[in-house]
Specification:
Blueprint: H1 7-33, H2 51-74, H3 84-101, H4 115-139
Helix pairs in contact: 1-2, 3-4
């Protein structure tokens, strides 16, 4: 039987449901990462989960989705539509901030470095910032 809560509690529970679903989605994606041709350049995930454990975890994730569905019905949590465009724009914006903070000046804290290396480094960072800006522009 659905339960109606005061608005402030309802907003909190709605947010919890979204966080739970995003975490479940992230776990599912992590488990499926090695099953797809994910591009690893600066990092590589080691598949150190046995197929048996992978299947057990996927089953538990599926069970959690079913519990979340009951949870949402019980507390009358409406399905919320999320814009892929907005999510991509948010990710691009955070990436831009990280890149902007990673300029050659930020390397000075690690000690002296040849100015030519810093110049080359900044060129790479600036190229990545330009591409990130393009994504932000497309999704804005």
């Amino acid at each position: 039987m659905p339960m109606k809560l005061p608005d402030n509690h309802q907003r909190g529970i709605n947010a919890i449901a979204v966080v739970i679903e995003k975490k479940l989605e992230a776990m599912q994606n992590a488990l499926n990462r090695n099953k797809t041709n994910t591009r690893g350049i600066a990092m590589s995930y080691i598949n150190d989960v046995s197929e048996e454990n992978r299947n057990l975890i996927l089953k538990d994730i599926d069970d959690l989705y079913h519990l979340l569905e009951k949870f949402c019905l019980r507390y009358q949590i409406p399905k919320q539509d999320y814009s892929l465009k907005r999510e991509l724009n948010t990710s691009a914006t955070f990436l831009w901030v990280d890149l902007a903070d990673a300029n050659g000046k930020s390397l000075k804290g690690f000690g002296k470095l040849d100015p030519e290396i810093i110049k080359e480094y900044d060129t790479f960072i600036n190229q990545m910032i330009e591409k990130t800006n393009k994504i932000a522009h497309i999704t804005n």
